[in-house]
Design goal:
This protein is α+β, with helices and mostly antiparallel strands. It is 28% helix and 42% strand. This is Lipoprotein.
Length: 106
């Protein structure tokens, strides 16, 4: 029982510390094969408190599930659905938001 409680507390603390973007359509999808980085560009900036100038929602290659994020992002792009990203601000490059989660919205 303690293990389950520990996992739940840690899972909710990760979500509580993560930032989320505004919800908008994806304008462009970019993949850098040399670095393995996946980028999503919205119709406007990704508005996140603390990193308001984010242009790119970036999935770093070391994350598991980057290919799944690409599939979800492309599905949203082709269907004309809006998305929201969850992740962390990048203090050294404010134009990049380190995404780790993508949600397709209505």
């Amino acid at each position: 029982m303690r293990v389950i409680l520990f996992i739940l507390v840690n899972m909710f603390s990760l979500i509580a510390n993560a930032a989320s973007t505004n919800t908008q359509l994806i304008k462009r999808v970019q993949y850098n094969a040399a670095s393995g980085q996946l980028f999503f560009v919205g119709e406007g900036d990704w508005l996140i408190p603390g990193c308001e100038n984010a242009i790119y929602a970036l999935f770093k290659p070391e994350l598991e599930g980057v290919q799944e994020a690409l599939s979800i992002g492309l599905a949203a792009y082709l269907a004309g659905k809006k998305v929201t990203f969850w992740g962390d601000c990048n203090p050294s490059g404010p134009e990049y938001f380190f995404a780790s989660y993508i949600i397709i919205r209505d």
